[in-house]
Structures are given as structure tokens and as C-alpha cells.
Amino acid sequence: MTGPQANAAFFHAPEDQFSAKEAYQFTVPIFGKGVAYDSSPEVFDQQLSWLFPALREQRLAAYARIMAEETEAYLDTWADRGEIDLLQATNELTVFIASRCLIGEEFRRRVSTEFARLYHDLEGGINLIAFFKPYWPLPAMASP
């Protein structure tokens, strides 16, 4: 399933041949009912349409500059000496960059380190067993 022709065959296949909705049911407990793969085809298309502008070539070209700006601003908050949790720092920085690139600068200004930590916790609910049993009461998938 590599290359443009194989990708097109997969991503443009009829729903009765390849069901993304069925494959991504593990996301329903994470994002909630009526969101993405738990919505009607019309609602799903509308939700996806909000992301398409962020993935256009013209916007993608600007992301390297945004990544550099976000990284420099993030590093400016560090002291000259000390220790950091590198995994936590890169997770925070990734959320800051992604929120600005994909949603916009106004939204990014409202994203805090606490939001980044909560998002990281949300990602923790995505694990292999969730692909098969998305509603099992596992700690990573439990509501706080």
C-alpha cells in the first residue's frame, strides 16, 4: 500500500470495501459520540473540511518558520542552568507548534503548558488494545 496509486486506491475506496469508520472506532471513547468516526458521512465531511485549509501546500510551506519561532520562544523560557524533563518539554512544544499550525495563532495564544499536559494524557488513552476493545475499562481509557 505504498505509492500514489496504492494510496489513492485505499483512500478513495468505497466504504463497503475499506471502512475507516470501522477501523477508527477506538477514537470514539477518546473524542466522544458524534465526533469524527462516530458521525454521519455528512457531518464527518464537514468536520474534516475544517482541517483541509491547514494542510494545503501554501500553508505547509509556512510551518517551518512557525516551528522555529515556537521553538525559540519556548527555549527563551528556560533558565541558563538546571534540569528539564525532555519528554515533557518536547510534548509541550509539539502541542504548541501543532495548535498554531493547524488551528491558528489566536488559538495558540490560549494554549498553556497545562493544556499540553492534558492533551498528552488524552493521547495516553490511545493504545493497541483500544483498537480491538475501545470500551474496556482500562486505566488509560478511564474518565478522570
Cα Rg = 18 Å
Write down how many β-strands occur, each being a DSSP E stretch of 2 or more residues.
Answer: 0
Helix content: 55-70%
* SS content category: mainly alpha
- Average pLDDT: 85
Topology of this protein?
Blueprint: H1 4-11, H2 20-23, H3 28-31, H4 41-49, H5 57-76, H6 86-102, H7 105-109, H8 113-124, H9 128-132
Helix pairs in contact: 5-6, 6-8
Q: What features would you describe in this structure?
A:
This protein has 144 residues and is mainly α. Helix content is 58%, strand content 0%. Helix 5 packs antiparallel against helix 6.
Brief summary:
This protein is an all-alpha fold.
Name some characteristics of this structure.
globular; mainly alpha; 144 residues; single chain; 58% helix
